[in-house]
Amino acid sequence: MRERLITELEDSPYLESTVSKPHFLVYLMGPYKSYPPYPTPPTHDVSNAATSRPTLNEINDRIEDDQDFSSNVDDALALLLYLRDELREKAGVNAFIATDPQIETDEIDAATQSLAFTRAANATIFVTPAMGDNLGVGIETGAICESLPAPALLEEVLFTEERDVDSEMIRAVSDRWHVTTDDFANYQELIQAVKAHLRIIAQNQLSTTTTY
Predict the structure, then answer these.
(1) Which stretch of 2-11, 62-71, 116-125 has the lowest confidence by average pLDDT?
(2) Per-residue confidence band for 67, with pLDDT thresholds at 50, 70 and 90
(3) Rounded to whole angstroms, how far apart are CA atoms 97 and 48?
(4) For burial by CB atoms within 10 Å, which of 86, 94, 115, 210 has the most?
C-alpha cells in the first residue's frame, strides 16, 4: 500500500503542491462536516462552542482570504485541507486526507482504506475541532487503535483536540491505548503540535532506516 499511495498521491488531481519528502506519508483524519447547528443553542458551554465556533476564527479568516478554498467548502473540511497544504508546502511531507488517493470504495471499502492508510503512513494525525461532527472520527479511532501494535500507536499516532471538545472517546484514547494526545485553542497551536510530533517521528525513523 505504501508504494501505491505514493503513486496515487503523485497523480492525484486534488494535490497541486509537490513535496520534498514524498516517502514521508502523513495521513490526516478528522471530520469533513461541521456539527449541525442547534435550533436553540443549549446553555452547556461545550455545546455552544460547537455551534458558535469561536476558537476557529483565525483559521476561518485565513481560509476566506485564500483563493484555493471556495465558499462551499465546509469549515471542518477546510481546516483539514489547510493543514494538509501547509504541511506539504512548508514541511515537505506527503500529507493527505482519505479522499486524495484515487482508490474507489468499490475496490477497498472506506473502513479498510483507513486501516491500510494508517499502516502504510509514517504518521497518522487525528484532528477533532469543536465544530466538527466527530462521530465518524470516534468510530475510526477505535478501529485503528485496536488494529495497530502498541509501539506504532505510541510513536506514530497523534490525537489532537480543540479545547472545547468534551469526549469520553478522547479520554479513552489516552487511557486505554496510550496514544499521544495534544490540545489546541487555535490553528497556530494545532500546526505547531503536528510539526513537533512529525519531527520526533522523523528523528526516530532516521535512527532505524535510511529510507527517509
Answers:
(1) 62-71
(2) low
(3) 28
(4) 94
Whether the pLDDT of residue 212 is over 80: the answer is: no
The grid coordinates of residue 74 equal: 465546509
For 177, phi then psi, to 5°, come to -110, -5
Query: Residue 41 — left, alpha, or beta (φ > 0 → left; ψ -120 to 50 → alpha)?
Result: beta
Q: Is the pLDDT of residue 118 over 80?
A: yes
Asked if residue 31 lies in contact with residue 75, where contact means CB atoms within 8 angstroms, the answer is no
**Rg over CA atoms, the chain:** 17
CB atoms within 10 A of CB 133: 15
SS3 116: helix
Q: Residue 156: exposed, middle, or buried by beta-carbon count in 10 A (0-12, 13-18, 19+)?
A: buried
Distances (CA, A) of 188 to 77, 93, 181, 200, 206: 17, 18, 16, 19, 27
What pTM does this model have? 0.81
* Structural domains of the chain in order of their starting residue, each with its CATH number: 2-206 (3.40.50.450)
List Cβ neighbours of 41 (8 Å cut-off, separation of 6 or more): 47, 48, 51, 52
Give the alpha-carbon dihedral of 104, 109, 111, 115, to 10 degrees.
-70
Which DSSP symbol is given to 132? B
The pLDDT of residue 211 = 38
For residue 57, what pLDDT is reported? 52
Q: Is 169 helix (H, G, I), strand (E, B) or coil?
A: helix
Strand stretches in 4-156, DSSP E: 21-29, 93-96, 123-128
